[in-house]
Fold:
Amino acid sequence: METSLHGAARALEEAFFARENARLLEQLRAKAQHEQRRTALREVIRIPDEQLVDHLLELGLGPETVLAVTMVPLAMVAWADGAVHPKEREAILRAAEDNGIAPGSIARQLLEGWLTQPPGAKLVDAWKRYVAAIWPSLSPHEHDEIRQSGLERARSVAEAAGGFLGLGSHVSAKERTTLDEIAKVLAG
Structure:
C-alpha cells in the first residue's frame, strides 16, 4: 500500500508541477510577446512617454496600426501638390529619417511605397475615421503628444518638399491646406 500511495503522490506532484510549469511558461511567453510589441511600438511612435506606449497597447493598438496612423499624414503632405518629383522624394525621405523613420525600417518601406503613388481617398478617410474613433480613449496629455509628433513630422516633410524641386523651405498653399486638414483631424 505504501508503494502505491507513494506512486500516487508522485503522480499527483508531477501532474501539479507539469500544469504549474506550463502556466508559468505561458506567462513567460506572453510577457516576452508583450515586450516585443512594446519595443516595436516604441520604435514606430518615437515618443519617450512609456505610459502612452503602455496605454496604446492596452487599447489593443499594435505597431502596425500605429504605423499606419503616423505614416498616412506624411504621404498626404508628399502628394499635396499632385506629384512627388525625384528631388522632393529625396528630401522627404531625409526629413522622415531626421524624424525617426530609419532606412530599412517598415515605416520607411511603407513611406517609399506611398511616394510612388498617392494614398487613395479611402485610405485618407479610413485614417480620419480611425483617429476620431481612438481619440476619446486617450488623455489630453496623450492627445498633445500624438498631435505634436504627427504635425512635426508632417511639417518637416512639407518643408523638405517645398520650394523649387525640394530646395528651400517654402511650404506651398496645397501643402499648407493639407497640414491644416491634418491638424484639424489631430485636434479631435
Observations:
- The CA atoms of residues 155 and 179 lie 7 Å apart.
- The helical segments are 2-45, 50-58, 63-78, 86-98, 106-114, 121-134, 140-161, 173-186.
